[in-house]
Design a protein that fits this description.
Shape: rod-shaped
CATH architecture of one domain: Roll
Distance between the termini: 195 Å
Strand order of the largest sheet: 8-9-12-11-10
CATH topology of one domain: SH3 type barrels
Largest sheet: 5 strands, antiparallel
Radius of gyration: 65 Å
Structural class: alpha+beta
Number of strands: 12
CATH class of one domain: Mainly Beta
Helix content: 10-25%
């Protein structure tokens, strides 16, 4: 048994030695090829020039217009100044004219006189240029009357200024201007009206108040009521008793 083992060991040693020699021979051959390869000079190779770059386009100022206009310091980046316009306020409605005076008639003797109502409701004669409450009497004729109010000229037909509810004159009596009542038979010194009212003073004479139906000749507070027929109707006034 010992001889077999010894022979096997010797065979193994011989195999190991052979493998070592073969490995060294292969390494030396590989090393020689490597040195031979590295020792060879590099073969020169022709180099192709790189392609020429594309030339840049010519500068056109119009292409940079947006850059020049859009400033970074403006909120809307717009060089055009936007002017905001505010709509004007609506015009104020025109003030309507105040109530117009009532028309009772007119007289053409000497300087023409228009008989109109005052602010207190009494009747009074006005000439052209006089103040009639808030109005100024400019002119009048048989058909129209013209007032001035706040630099405005207002012209009205006389029919519009007459009182609509005036009583109609009785038969046999002369026509009565609008707003007056046809007088009854005069009773001198006796007042038949319950409470006659004196109108405003006009040069010592008091005017009649619309709605006073006391007859001519009525006496009150030292004045006597007179109703005088005129060219355009009857004139009513209170004259002082002498």
């Amino acid at each position: 048994m010992n001889r077999k083992i010894l022979a096997l060991n010797l065979a193994l040693l011989a195999l190991l030695g052979t493998l070592g020699w073969m490995l060294r021979a292969h390494w030396r051959e590989t090393r020689a090829q490597e040195l031979a390869t590295l020792a060879k000079a590099a073969r020169a190779k022709a180099q192709l020039p790189p392609p020429s770059p594309t030339p840049p386009e010519a500068v056109v100022p119009a292409n940079y217009l947006d850059v020049a206009q859009k400033t970074l310091f403006s909120k809307d980046r717009n060089p055009n100044v936007i002017i905001e316009t505010v709509a004007p306020p609506p015009p104020k409605p025109e003030e309507p004219p105040p109530p117009r005076p009532e028309y009772f008639g007119q007289m053409g003797i000497n300087e023409p006189v228009a008989i109109l109502s005052t602010e207190k409701g009494a009747q009074k004669g006005f000439h052209a240029g006089d103040k009639v409450g808030p109005f100024k009497l400019v002119a009048f004729d048989r058909d129209t009357i013209t007032f001035e109010w706040k630099d405005k000229t207002l012209r009205y037909p006389l029919e519009e200024l007459k009182r609509k509810d005036a009583p109609q004159p009785q038969a046999g009596l002369p026509p009565v201007p609008t707003g007056q009542v046809a007088p009854a038979a005069p009773i001198i010194g006796i007042s038949t009206s319950k409470d006659p009212v004196l109108g405003p003073s006009n040069g010592g004479v008091r005017g009649c108040v619309a709605g006073d139906n006391s007859p001519a000749g009525t006496v009150k507070d030292g004045f006597k009521k007179t109703i005088t027929p005129g060219m355009f109707g009857q004139m009513c006034q209170w004259e002082p008793i002498q």
